[in-house]
Amino acid sequence: MAKRSLKASPAGIQQAKRAFALKGWTQENLAGEVNLKTRQPIWRFFTGQPVDRQVFMELCQVLDLDWREIAKNPPAEFLEPGESVEPTIDELVAEVRSQHHDTIQHRCGILQLLDVRHPVNIDDIYVDVNILEAVANQQCLEVSALNNLDPADFNRMGLGIIDQPQIPGVEAVKTYGKLRVLGKPGIGKTTFLQHLAVQCNQGEFAPEQVPIFILLREFAEAAKHQNDVSLFDYIHRILVRSGLTNPAQLERLLIEGRVLMLMDGMDEVINQDISATIREIRSFSDKYHRNRFVVSCRTAAQELALHGFTDVEISPFSPEQITTFAQKWFVTLGRTATSQGQTQAAEFIEKLDLPENWQFRQLVVTPLFLHLSCWLFQGQGQFPTKRTAFYKQGLDLLLGKWDETKGVTRDDAYREFLLPQKMRLLSQLAAVTFEKGQYFFEQRVIEQYIEDYLENLPEVTLQPEELQLESEAMLKAIEAQHGLLIERARGIFSFSYLVFQEYLTARKIVATHNLSALEQALGGLVSHITDPHWHEVFLLTAGMLRSADSLVQLMKQEVDALVAQDPHLQDFLMWVNKKSKSLPNPKLATTRAFYLALAQDSPTANQFALASTLDQGIFLDTALENLLREFAIDHSQNFAYAHACSEALNNILVIVLDAGFYKSLQQLKEQLPASHQSQEQLETWWQNNYANWVEQLKDSVAKYRNIHHPWKFNPEQKQVLNRYYDANQLLIDCLNSNCEVTEAMRKEIEATLLLPQKELDDREWQNN
Prior knowledge:
α14 (271-287) links the parallel β9 and β10 (292-298). It is elongated, with a radius of gyration of 37 Å. The chain is of the alpha/beta class.
């Protein structure tokens, strides 16, 4: 059988180009001579690529050439133009792939990233995704068990999603002939399908198939416009633009299973078109079941089931994927030399891993927020000090800008809510759930909260049954359109990111309409000052207030009240203050905080590092506390410990400046048995003198350094002191969060941190 397609040899190309030049035609003229609608076959002819045999022969004929001299490896038999010869299926695939190649590269090979004004090659930025074979919200879990989890014990992005085995995305496509890829907004569903199309186009994945990439919303719109809900006709129209005019050839490809069907955005089809679209996908995939099908859809819309399809979910980025993405992003988009881009990527990852940037680490597990973080970091060289601006940008994306960027129009299930109204609703839902300690909530509970909100709107006059239906529709819209509320397990919802629940809770407080209501809201917030779950809400609220003076003042009053009624704790704070004042040029608030912590806990490496930056005396006190706490361990049988005591005193004596204290320690050191003494002599000294020697050391330290007093706090007092310390630290964190606080208020709070009540009362009396 004669070949269906021919291609020119290198010598034949040169001969054809000379003949073409002699004609003086353009490529449009030549295409017209052989009745071609596009110039693509002309370009393929002159570049040595396969061209339909009939077209090849007609081109040679109009150029006055012998086709057998021009063709590479021409068949022996002579076939006249117009004669029909059926190609093999492999030849047909090769021809259609060649014709459709440029269309796929143009459609799928470039990305238009948010806030980037030029297209980006997909291969320069794409990171391989992983797939969860078990869809997270199909788990059956109890909401009470989830809410008992400590936020520190689970991933703040995943909010309790159980670790599941993952496989590479391409492996999932190879494994399942019909695959529906689910995922949250911005997690990379569309980019994954585009990547598959490009890989297939380049022969690196499914080279025996023809890639077809379809945006389902465009298909639905075209079907409605032409009154023809037919995927076959839609695909044929796409291929006609690439030069494939015979529908029988498409039918043959589909029957033989030679098409890779990539259909993106099932959730983006509007409600009035979705049923017809799903029916057509089901019918088409059943009829041509030998092909490979991949459909993408947001997780929230997974009830749009497809017969015979396996549901999987795109996994959030791992730390390794985040690093790879950052390296590609800064090299590709940084517009710098490769080495400079790699350096900036390394700086990005290094700063992302800092403790103060943990909130950003929880968000950048999706390509959308990772891109936004890289974009902000490139402009500033650091992460935003005010996280509220970053969270607002993220919410704006999810609430509409992301869809606008993609050209997606959603169904109106929001009673025509504008963005500010959506923010008020979400803020109310965040605040009421967070106040009740609900990170997870049953579907009916969150629907009831939505009903309560709607019922209080002045323009709403719905009956109870209508309110319930409205709340159900709005919950589905919030989940499907924005991905802010998502179903974690069957019938159990939460905010997709805990940081958004915290941000919206803070926004609800700040958005209070009048001064009296704001003071009441701030008072309610301050009542949670000892609850670590509210730490971030305090910081975000302080950052959003026009003036945070009232908040930090209320916080200071609440903090001082924690220990005001306990005389023993007040005596302890009196000692802390007195000890701090005894140091030369002390940073009083910092020094008080240091001694408050030192008197309760064993000194740590961090405390030693801090002590060395404050004062030599503080460093000495830390070393002494460390030594004395070691004596609390039973060394009664460890006779060799005497040598360790001697060495520790040697190290301490180096930094002692007080002559009396130095002499006292030196005398105590000389009492210790010499290292050359026998085991029997050492044991005798230890049993007769060790306990008394330790007491002498304690007395000397108390006399000269005024530390290591036996405060003997009971368990309740220890708990109160820990809360008091943490609450003061939170107050300091708020002051250091770039919030708007007057200088006078800042100085007053810093001057009175960790003071006993008597000192506070005396200071207030003096000021009045």
